[in-house]
Amino acid sequence: MRQDAIGTRVLLTGVLILVITINAAAQQPYSSKGLKDYYQQYFPIGVAVSANQLKDSAQTALILQEFNSLTPENAMKMGPIHPEEGRYNWRDADLIVNFAQQHHLKIRGHNLCWHNQTPKWFFYDGNGKLVSKTVLLQRLKDHIYQVVGRYKGKIYAWDVVNEAVADDDSQLLRNSLWYQICGEDFIAKAFQYAHEADPDAILFYNDYNTEQPQKRERIYRLLKQLLADGVPINAVGLQAHWSLNKPSTENLIATIKKYASLGLQVQITELDISVFTSNDERIPAAAAEQRQAEQYQRVFEVFREFKKELTGVTFWNLSDRSSWLNNFPVPGRKNYPLLFDQSLKPKAAYWKVTQF
Q1: DSSP reduced 3-state for 73
Q2: Residue 40 is part of which domain span?
Q3: Is residue 14 part of a domain?
Q4: Would residue 95 count as lying in a domain?
Q5: What is the mean pLDDT of residues 88-102?
Q6: Which one of the listed residues 66, 211, 270, 289 is annotated catalytic?
Q7: pTM exceeding the 0.85 threshold for the entire prediction
Q8: pLDDT of residue 30
Q9: What is the DSSP string of 174-215?
Q10: Does residue 18 belong to any structural domain of this protein?
């Protein structure tokens, strides 16, 4: 966090704390070179964005300086883009795609099938009863054909199925309405439809806690079975919503190796590192920022080591100003999980990531 003042007052978990800024690494001069340039020989560096951010000159300037790939954070999810049967809302998605094309940025599509943010109408008929498997799969096919087809040749990769594996170690798949109505078939069908709509797109299964050993094993089993069944899946996305103390370097390395062993591309798709520990421990802000910087440094060392297996790293939003972790999972709690602060200035973590 490069600042001219000696300290900055921030509100963290309801307590006013004086943050002493920071170390020499955080005070380096900020040049025109961006993350995309530091990692030019490694992999694309992306960021999730909203349409509103692309209407703000300061944020668009930072995006263009630092990143060479965009992911629509919410604009392409089922709820926002297809809120009612027969009606699509293309405005925000089109704006993001047009911006990316104008500035020669890669685009990842996110996402086509998810238990969350699926409009209720997908699952119910006019009488309020659950639809049949045949009806639901037809609705899924129509949705994917429309969305993927609209951006064919513009979006190079899609998160096709998002978070289908259960958190419960005794279950393979989440007990969502997708699963209740279709069984496991909805997963293979979603990939089939996406491939039919754009045969050249790279198709991802995307999930969180991918580096936790038990869930990692279940995701691996699912992916291995999909490949054995001839499903057109090309890649796995590791969401990477991490904390000050997880994942360990050993778990992260094991995770990348395991998924890559299937012959799949691997991407870090939604990276942020909370200033809280995985058990929600509250520590002084200055110490949290330093530990965050060190954690970013560790994970990027692993990323660089596996540059042949990793085909992209995407941050889940631009700055601490707009992170989804503000108010989640604790209402009213501010988080600071990204490389740029609320004033869009690089933090200590930025220099740990770029100075290697």
Answers
A1: coil
A2: 33-282+297-330
A3: no
A4: yes
A5: 98
A6: 270
A7: yes
A8: 56
A9: ---HHHHHHTTHHHHHHHHHHHHH-TTSEEEEEESSTTSHHH
A10: no
Tokens of 37: 């340039």
Backbone dihedral region of 117: left (phi > 0), alpha (psi from -120 to 50 degrees) or beta?
Answer: left
In the annotation, is 163 catalytic? yes
- CATH number of the CATH domain containing 65: 3.20.20.80
What are the pLDDT digits (tens) for 235-266? Answer: 999 999 999 999 999 999 999 999 999 999 99
Q: Is 73 a catalytic residue?
A: no
Calpha distance 174→146 (Å, rounded): 26
Give the per-residue pLDDT at 353. Answer: 98
- CA atoms within 13 A of residue 238's CA, in its CB half-sphere: 33
Given the residues 163, 281, 289, 305, the one annotated as active site: 163
* Number of Cβ atoms within 10 Å of the Cβ of 168: 13
Is the pLDDT confidence value at 226 over 60? yes
| Number of domains the chain is built from | 1
